[in-house]
């Protein structure tokens, strides 16, 4: 009885060892079925430029002061709506009022001096007239004495005296005329002094008027930099008192676009953006301007694109960060594949025998170059509207992958357009069609496990990949 039990146990043990050895022996694997695929689709495709920007008013005015002094009154605060010409602050005007009074007094003094100069002109003119009359009388008397001398009634000495007197009176008349000219010049100088004093008075009055700070536009105060009692000093640059946004319902986003993408951005293109405050709300705008001035931050060159948009409810505030997408091109019916399909690399062990052998026979550098060429760059030249080459793997109905070379077009960052081939060579695979399955990920290459006997006795069996399509034989 015991011998039969021992024989039965031995047979069972041998059967178990044999079954385990068969299951652990590295036989050929079956077809791979755990490919990750995606379907080729047709539909709209839009190429976009993604960037960040800052929400700003279309027009914001820095309100400053042209005069220095202490603020005596501040009437506007943050978010205050103001009208053009409305008083929003006042600087203590006492010093400027005194300057106005001094300038007015100087003007009165200049006017008084001008009156004196005018009187001097009149006096000089009278003296000149009297000197001319005396000269004329002396000339007539000289003429009479010349006749008397010719008749011998007066002596030559008397005639000489009359001649000298006439000459003296003539010189006195000329001197009086010159004095009149001097008086007129003094009067003109006095009148010029009046105009100068009037200018000084007007300048003092302007400075006095500048002590009243008024809003230059209709808008909302978005920044107040001063308080009552603070002293402002206007020297080479006017100090900033307020910033007033002219209109918060018509705003813009100043977008920093990388130099690699700025060539695709043009005025008139549509743009959408979101802000962190309202992540579920998408706003629309239009590119209004692409500024040619570059910004260099840590050797990164960016350009500013201005996106104009409407803010009717005033929900968006100045200074918010916007995540902008500018649509640069669009296809309404594009044949598109996921970008992940352009990055798939299928291990040689998972390829059919013919494809694997062809790939393995290629030299190492040439093979690597072929793979690098076929990998494609989604979002590279293709994303910028140019043509690019790529490689995808189509999954055939029998479960084997097929390599295809494709021409790439637009890309939106997640999908890329597949363009028709330039020419179809004889014997080449059929081009991609809508509904085809392409690989988006590949499983790792299978490795053969060591046999049970080698595991039991410490040995290790070579890991040799088996053909993917070879069937497994049962016994």
UniProtKB/TrEMBL annotation:
<dbReference type="GO" id="GO:0030313">
    <property type="term" value="C:cell envelope"/>
</dbReference>
<dbReference type="GO" id="GO:0016020">
    <property type="term" value="C:membrane"/>
</dbReference>
<dbReference type="InterPro" id="IPR050465">
    <property type="entry name" value="UPF0194_transport"/>
</dbReference>
<feature type="domain" description="Multidrug resistance protein MdtA-like barrel-sandwich hybrid">
    <location>
        <begin position="61"/>
        <end position="240"/>
    </location>
</feature>
<comment type="similarity">
    <text>Belongs to the membrane fusion protein (MFP) (TC 8.A.1) family.</text>
</comment>
<protein>
    <submittedName>
        <fullName>Efflux RND transporter periplasmic adaptor subunit</fullName>
    </submittedName>
</protein>
<feature type="domain" description="CusB-like beta-barrel">
    <location>
        <begin position="253"/>
        <end position="328"/>
    </location>
</feature>
<dbReference type="InterPro" id="IPR058792">
    <property type="entry name" value="Beta-barrel_RND_2"/>
</dbReference>
<dbReference type="Pfam" id="PF25917">
    <property type="entry name" value="BSH_RND"/>
</dbReference>
<dbReference type="InterPro" id="IPR058625">
    <property type="entry name" value="MdtA-like_BSH"/>
</dbReference>
<dbReference type="GO" id="GO:0022857">
    <property type="term" value="F:transmembrane transporter activity"/>
</dbReference>
<feature type="compositionally biased region" description="Low complexity">
    <location>
        <begin position="355"/>
        <end position="367"/>
    </location>
</feature>
<dbReference type="Pfam" id="PF25954">
    <property type="entry name" value="Beta-barrel_RND_2"/>
</dbReference>
<feature type="region of interest" description="Disordered">
    <location>
        <begin position="355"/>
        <end position="394"/>
    </location>
</feature>
<feature type="compositionally biased region" description="Gly residues">
    <location>
        <begin position="376"/>
        <end position="388"/>
    </location>
</feature>
<dbReference type="InterPro" id="IPR006143">
    <property type="entry name" value="RND_pump_MFP"/>
</dbReference>
<keyword id="KW-0175">Coiled coil</keyword>
């Amino acid at each position: 009885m015991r011998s039969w039990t021992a024989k039965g146990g031995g047979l069972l043990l041998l059967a178990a060892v044999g079954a385990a050895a068969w299951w652990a022996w590295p036989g050929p694997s079956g077809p791979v079925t755990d490919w990750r695929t995606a379907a080729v689709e047709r539909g709209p495709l839009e190429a976009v430029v993604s960037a960040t920007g800052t929400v700003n008013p279309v027009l914001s005015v820095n309100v400053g002061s042209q005069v220095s002094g202490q603020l005596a009154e501040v009437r506007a605060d943050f978010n205050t709506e103001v009208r053009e010409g409305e008083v929003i602050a006042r600087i203590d005007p006492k010093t400027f009022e005194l300057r106005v009074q001094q300038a007015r007094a100087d003007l009165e003094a200049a006017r008084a001096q001008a009156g004196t100069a005018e009187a001097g002109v009149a006096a000089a003119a009278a003296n000149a007239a009297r000197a001319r009359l005396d000269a004329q009388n002396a000339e007539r008397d000289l003429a009479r004495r010349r006749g008397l001398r010719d008749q011998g009634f007066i002596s030559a000495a008397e005639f000489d005296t009359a001649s000298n007197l006439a000459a003296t009176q003539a010189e006195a008349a000329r001197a009086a005329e010159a004095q009149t000219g001097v008086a007129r010049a003094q009067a003109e100088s006095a009148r010029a002094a009046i105009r100068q004093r009037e200018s000084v008075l007007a300048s003092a009055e302007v400075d006095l008027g500048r002590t009243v700070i008024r809003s230059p536009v209709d808008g909302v105060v978005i920044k107040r930099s001063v308080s009552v009692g603070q002293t402002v000093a206007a020297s080479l640059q006017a100090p900033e008192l307020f910033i007033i946004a002219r209109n918060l319902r018509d705003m813009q986003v100043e977008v920093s676009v990388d130099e690699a993408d700025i060539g695709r951005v043009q005025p008139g293109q549509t743009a959408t953006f979101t802000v962190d405050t309202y992540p579920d709300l998408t706003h629309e705008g239009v590119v209004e301007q692409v500024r040619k001035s570059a910004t260099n931050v840590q050797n990164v060159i960016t350009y500013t694109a201005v996106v104009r948009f409407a803010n009717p409810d005033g929900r968006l505030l100045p200074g918010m960060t916007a995540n902008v997408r500018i649509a640069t091109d669009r296809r309404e019916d594009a044949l598109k594949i996921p970008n992940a399909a352009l990055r798939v690399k299928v291990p040689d062990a998972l390829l059919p025998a013919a494809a694997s052998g062809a790939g393995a026979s290629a030299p190492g550098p040439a093979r690597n170059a072929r793979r690098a060429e076929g990998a494609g760059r989604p979002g590279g030249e293709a994303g910028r509207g140019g043509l690019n080459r790529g490689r995808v793997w189509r999954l055939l109905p029998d479960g084997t992958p097929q390599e295809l070379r494709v021409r790439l077009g637009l890309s939106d960052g997640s999908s890329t357009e597949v363009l028709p081939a330039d020419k179809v060579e004889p014997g080449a695979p059929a081009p991609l069609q809508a509904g085809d399955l392409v690989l988006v990920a590949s499983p790792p290459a299978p490795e053969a496990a060591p046999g049970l006997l080698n595991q039991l006795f410490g040995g290790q069996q070579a890991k040799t990949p088996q053909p993917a399509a070879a069937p497994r034989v049962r016994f």
